[in-house]
Amino acid sequence: MSAKDDDVPRPEESRERETRGNYLGFVAHEVRNPLSTALWSAELLARMAAEERGGPRGEKLTAMCLRSLGRVRQLIEDHFLSERLDVGGIPIRPESLVIGAVVEEAAGRRPPDVGAVTIDGDASVTLEIDRALLDRALDALLAAAGREAAPVRVTVRSDGGRLALAIAGAPAAADALEDPKKGSPSDLKGRALALPLVRRVAPALGGTLAVEGGAFVLTLPLQAAYTSRPDAAAHP
């Protein structure tokens, strides 16, 4: 095989590049729209007289700007955390947690558009897990299951050293966990990357995530999973 042949990408490499390109195209489009809205709102506010900025029109533009910036922040945080998880760039810091208390706290900070949350099963189970990553996973799953104010039921089961959380509410599509691609539906709340992020969080915690019967099922080990720190030279 010649050196020229070596430069030709293999079919699987071409598919990976195309998939990656479609995903990044979606991310760029999803961030660009609310960012443009935020900048437009800020420019209009800057041109207003002080009295007008304090009036109804100024309040409306300020709220629009804040909503758009919140959407951008959510997208950027989810995207970069996903990227770090893809390269093993986040060390796991486990701590002892009671699952019921963690779910209740997540329910307490849910956005206004997410429905009420109830917990069934053995909520007193304790597990060793990274709190920050578990919180990100629960926030995203509750928001997805509780979209459009749908009530959410979290069922806790433990068996054989593992914990299973079944999170049921608005029915989840079979492909809900897949990475979006160029042309995928937008999300006005900024949550378009949240479920793909949780798909990455689950294995980082030594667990799994699946859609079963329209519900999200997050399975986690009761004992802490170990994730090695990546080689700093390989991932500067």
From TrEMBL:
<feature type="domain" description="Signal transduction histidine kinase dimerisation/phosphoacceptor">
    <location>
        <begin position="19"/>
        <end position="88"/>
    </location>
</feature>
<dbReference type="InterPro" id="IPR003661">
    <property type="entry name" value="HisK_dim/P_dom"/>
</dbReference>
<dbReference type="Pfam" id="PF00512">
    <property type="entry name" value="HisKA"/>
</dbReference>
<dbReference type="InterPro" id="IPR036097">
    <property type="entry name" value="HisK_dim/P_sf"/>
</dbReference>
<protein>
    <recommendedName>
        <fullName>histidine kinase</fullName>
        <ecNumber>2.7.13.3</ecNumber>
    </recommendedName>
</protein>
<dbReference type="InterPro" id="IPR036890">
    <property type="entry name" value="HATPase_C_sf"/>
</dbReference>
